[in-house]
């Protein structure tokens, strides 16, 4: 890809990262930290203003960049809601997407994976804070992701093959997590099942082996984290640990660094 195009893509991605980071920095603080007890069935608290505690209903917390750029304060107390560290992190994450996935990708393909990075960052932090993957974020991501990847497929020589694998990955991973949920519902959240198809879509775009690798890494990272907390006496076997962040991190690791499965089999 010509250097001028790479520079233009880098600038566009940096600007997108700044806007997405500002949006994330105003959405994430609305989800208060929630560490449920093993027998707690009350569910996580709804999005609330971190200053006055007023509940913020959808669509007031909807991650719509233009609205968040215009209005930055709580509608009840008027105080500003923002987390600067999140803004910087999301912007850096998008630049990392370009750096790791390669600037030789097609622009629409980069846009699709930039969307995955933005939504993945939001869902990772929200699930870690409240142990919940909001339907408003998970389910609305499917049509956007499908449209972006379908558009990317039209601009690439092997686009039809990639998009077909992506659809297979989406369906296959959704069914796999649904089966796990049916077998052991206490160990698998329904939100994880609903998000699995989205991860399978992006992993399958690379290869069906990537779907397997991303799933394996999710369980590996989760188990390692849980065992580490138990060894450090920061948790017990009954401590609730959200699995969604590890699903996203495992998928993102394979997408950015590459699928290790061919190397292991070779």
Automatic annotation (TrEMBL):
<dbReference type="InterPro" id="IPR000045">
    <property type="entry name" value="Prepilin_IV_endopep_pep"/>
</dbReference>
<dbReference type="GO" id="GO:0006465">
    <property type="term" value="P:signal peptide processing"/>
</dbReference>
<dbReference type="GO" id="GO:0005886">
    <property type="term" value="C:plasma membrane"/>
</dbReference>
<comment type="similarity">
    <text>Belongs to the peptidase A24 family.</text>
</comment>
<feature type="transmembrane region" description="Helical">
    <location>
        <begin position="239"/>
        <end position="258"/>
    </location>
</feature>
<keyword id="KW-0489">Methyltransferase</keyword>
<keyword id="KW-0378">Hydrolase</keyword>
<dbReference type="InterPro" id="IPR050882">
    <property type="entry name" value="Prepilin_peptidase/N-MTase"/>
</dbReference>
<dbReference type="Pfam" id="PF01478">
    <property type="entry name" value="Peptidase_A24"/>
</dbReference>
<feature type="transmembrane region" description="Helical">
    <location>
        <begin position="163"/>
        <end position="184"/>
    </location>
</feature>
<dbReference type="GO" id="GO:0008168">
    <property type="term" value="F:methyltransferase activity"/>
</dbReference>
<keyword id="KW-0812">Transmembrane</keyword>
<keyword id="KW-0472">Membrane</keyword>
<keyword id="KW-1133">Transmembrane helix</keyword>
<feature type="domain" description="Prepilin type IV endopeptidase peptidase">
    <location>
        <begin position="115"/>
        <end position="228"/>
    </location>
</feature>
<keyword id="KW-0808">Transferase</keyword>
<dbReference type="GO" id="GO:0004190">
    <property type="term" value="F:aspartic-type endopeptidase activity"/>
</dbReference>
<dbReference type="GO" id="GO:0032259">
    <property type="term" value="P:methylation"/>
</dbReference>
<feature type="transmembrane region" description="Helical">
    <location>
        <begin position="204"/>
        <end position="232"/>
    </location>
</feature>
<feature type="transmembrane region" description="Helical">
    <location>
        <begin position="86"/>
        <end position="103"/>
    </location>
</feature>
<protein>
    <submittedName>
        <fullName>Leader peptidase (Prepilin peptidase)/N-methyltransferase</fullName>
        <ecNumber>2.1.1.-</ecNumber>
        <ecNumber>3.4.23.43</ecNumber>
    </submittedName>
</protein>
<feature type="transmembrane region" description="Helical">
    <location>
        <begin position="137"/>
        <end position="156"/>
    </location>
</feature>
<feature type="transmembrane region" description="Helical">
    <location>
        <begin position="110"/>
        <end position="131"/>
    </location>
</feature>
């Amino acid at each position: 890809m010509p250097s001028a195009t790479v520079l233009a893509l880098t600038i566009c991605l940096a600007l997108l990262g700044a806007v997405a980071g500002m949006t994330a920095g105003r959405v994430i603080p609305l989800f208060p930290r929630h560490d449920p007890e093993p027998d707690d069935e009350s569910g996580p608290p709804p999005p609330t203003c971190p200053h006055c505690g007023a509940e913020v209903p959808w669509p007031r917390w909807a991650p719509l960049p233009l609205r968040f750029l215009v209005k930055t304060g709580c509608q009840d107390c008027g105080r500003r809601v923002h987390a600067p560290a999140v803004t910087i992190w999301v912007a850096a994450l998008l630049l990392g997407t370009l750096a790791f996935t390669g600037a030789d990708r097609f622009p629409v393909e980069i846009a699709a994976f930039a969307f995955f990075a933005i939504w993945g960052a939001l869902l990772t932090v929200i699930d870690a804070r409240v142990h919940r993957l909001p339907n408003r974020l998970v389910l609305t991501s499917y049509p956007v992701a499908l449209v972006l990847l379908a558009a990317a497929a039209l601009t690439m020589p092997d686009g039809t093959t990639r998009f077909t694998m992506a659809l297979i990955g989406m369906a296959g991973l959704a069914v796999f997590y649904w089966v796990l949920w049916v077998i052991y519902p206490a160990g698998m959240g329904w939100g994880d099942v609903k998000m699995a198809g989205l991860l399978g879509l992006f992993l399958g775009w690379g290869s069906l082996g990537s779907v397997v690798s991303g799933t394996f890494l999710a369980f590996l990272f989760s188990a390692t984290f849980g065992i580490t907390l138990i060894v450090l006496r920061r948790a017990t076997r009954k401590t609730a640990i959200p699995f969604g962040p590890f699903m996203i991190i495992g998928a993102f690791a394979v997408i950015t660094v590459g699928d290790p499965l061919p190397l292991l089999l070779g």
